[in-house]
Design a protein that fits this description.
The structure holds two protein chains of two kinds. Chain A is α/β, with parallel strands linked by helices. Chain A is built from nine helices and ten strands. Chain A has one domain: P-loop containing nucleotide triphosphate hydrolases (Rossmann fold), CATH 3.40.50.300. In chain A, strand 7, helix 6 and strand 8 form a beta-alpha-beta unit. In chain A, helix 3 packs across helix 4 and helix 3 runs parallel beside helix 5. The chains are: A alpha/beta, B mainly alpha. Chains A and B meet through helix 2 and helix 3 of A and helix 7 and helix 8 of B.
Chain lengths: 244, 281
């Protein structure tokens, strides 16, 4: 069974149609990278999947459950999906460990000791062992984003959504975050990633999806899409990136 | 090798030191001049002598002090219970106003009407309505005027505090709610665990300011006949045929609020420093 199946997703903000019938399927362990210009609908697509935006038409099916059904418990559905944001969005009034264990304790009802043990272990695994009891705003951007990733994977979600997670980072700090994402891929996580980092997209993606004007125009392996793009829009987008 | 300030830096520090010394002298001089002028003007007014004996009579002050201080004890108790009441009711109203969804429309509407109403009606009128109106219903046992006063003050200040709290909650960036909901936390958990703790921190100076303002407004319960500091002073005024007890009461209220005023300033300054750490503007 597919982890994620998007069937004909439409989304409109006022008169602007942001998503115009998007279909996409992710099998278990798939890493799919969305590329495309700003405004092509990548972020909105991710936001419809974890129900932050309500779709205007179509279905989001998570491991066989239609979570766009109005009878869905949205909190339960969201708890099955891990999300990492461009601006980290850590809770500044909580320590790193409390940020990381919040959902485990409150939503998944783990005992505090179990949550703390797993949170500490994950933080240590990703080189954040000395930050466990720090407040998040004392950390560098790269460290904050790594904490945010640990927060998202803490309860082993079925699907991870990463929304331009390196766009707010200093170039020096991008590497440490992307290395962590590669670790997650090696660990078998199913991920849908929106990014502007093409070299990262190439190295981590099983499939690249090119979005343009709210539609998926082209899909392929990194080799196919970067070396032999079929659509003029894809060629133009890639040409502009390499010009820089 | 250790760092020693360069000659340029030494000169700059020397200049800043001289400049700040000059500022202190100017400030001191202008303050003395200002106070001096006011004192000379007041003392030379034609009625100063009679004002001095009717408002600043040390003998009357000493005689009335124990009674006024005893009255202030009632104000303090009212303040204590009203603060607890305001904290509970204010938070409740703020949360009611921030509820989403059509189901909660009645709660939202009630909270909105409440805050609009009680911020509009003068405190004195609320005191009269609660203090004389509710006992007249004859469904409650006879309660001291101080109790009705506490209720009235709580009703008024809850409306202000609710608005301050709501402003603080709305000042928390929406991305914090999104992050919390994305983890699967419900709306109410998000409010309780993510939004309120952060919002509260943003409005602490404003809340402390409301508290300072409440410290003196508890004196208004005297209109209900409760013998608080103001009422006690009024009685002493009638006995001595001299206004000095009012000044005594005023000084006591100032003494009561002074620590909180200073603390508010300190907390505000510290928060401002924290927000713009590193900047000099």
């Amino acid at each position: 069974m597919s982890v994620l199946k998007l069937d004909n997703i439409w989304k409109r903000f006022g008169d602007v149609e942001v998503l115009k019938g998007v279909d996409l399927t992710l099998e278990e362990h798939d890493v799919v990278v969305l590329i495309g210009a700003s405004g092509s609908g990548k972020s909105t697509l991710l936001r419809t999947i974890n129900l932050i935006e309500q779709v205007d038409d179509g279905q989001v099916i998570l491991s066989g459950d239609d979570i766009t059904d109005p009878q869905t418990d949205v909190d339960k559905a969201r708890a099955r999906i891990g999300v990492v944001f461009q601006q980290f969005n850590l809770f500044p009034h909580m320590k790193v460990i409390d940020n990381v264990t919040l959902a485990a304790r409150r939503v998944h009802k783990w005992p505090a000791a179990k949550a703390r043990a797993k949170g500490t272990a994950l933080l240590e695994k990703f080189g954040l062992g000395d930050k466990v009891n720090e407040y998040s705003d004392r950390l560098s951007g790269g460290q904050q984003q790594r904490v945010a990733i640990v927060r998202a994977i803490m309860t082993d979600p079925e699907l991870l959504l990463l929304d331009e997670i390196t766009s707010a980072l200093d170039p020096m700090l991008v590497g440490e975050v992307l290395d962590l994402v590669r670790d997650l891929k090696d660990g078998g996580s199913t991920m849908l990633i929106a990014t502007h980092e093409m070299s990262f997209a190439k190295s981590v993606a099983d499939r690249i999806v090119f979005m343009h004007g709210g539609r998926i125009l082209e899909t392929g392996t990194p080799e196919q899409l970067f070396n032999d793009p079929q659509r003029p829009e894809t060629r133009e987008f890639l040409a502009r990136l390499t010009q820089r | 090798m250790s760092w020693a300030p360069s000659e340029l830096e030494v000169h700059r520090r020397e200049y800043r030191r001289r400049a700040s010394g000059r500022s202190v002298i100017i400030a001191l001089f202008s303050t003395l001049l200002f106070v001096g002028v006011i004192a000379v003007v007041v003392v030379n007014t034609p009625g100063w002598e009679s004002v001095k004996t009717t408002f600043f009579n040390t003998e009357v002050a000493a005689d009335s002090f124990p009674a006024v201080l005893k009255g202030l004890w009632l104000n303090l108790r009212v303040l204590f219970f009203a603060s607890i009441g305001v904290a509970v009711l204010g938070t409740l109203l703020a949360v009611m106003r921030s509820l989403r969804g059509p189901v909660f429309f009645p709660l939202r509407a009630i909270a909105t009407i409440y805050t609009d109403l009680f911020r509009g009606v003068p405190v004195l009128i609320v005191l009269f309505l609660v203090g004389f109106g509710i006992p007249a219903l004859e469904i409650f046992p006879r309660l001291p005027a101080g109790v009705w006063g506490t209720i009235a003050i709580t009703l008024c200040y809850s409306a202000y505090v609710a608005e301050v709290l709501r402003a603080g909650m709305e000042a928390v960036h929406p991305s914090q709610r999104i992050a919390s909901r994305s983890l699967g936390l419900s709306h109410s958990e998000t409010l309780r665990i993510v939004v309120i703790p952060q919002g509260l921190r943003k409005v602490i100076p404003a809340l402390m300011n409301d508290f300072v303002s409440m410290q003196k407004d508890v004196g208004l319960i005297s209109v209900l006949g409760a013998v608080d500091a103001i009422r006690a002073a009024q009685i002493e005024v009638a006995v001595a045929y001299n206004f000095t007890p009012y000044v005594v009461a005023a000084l006591l209220f100032v003494a009561l609020s002074f620590p909180m005023i200073r603390l508010t300033d300190y907390v505000s300054a510290r928060m401002a420093r924290r927000e713009q750490s590193g900047g000099t503007v």
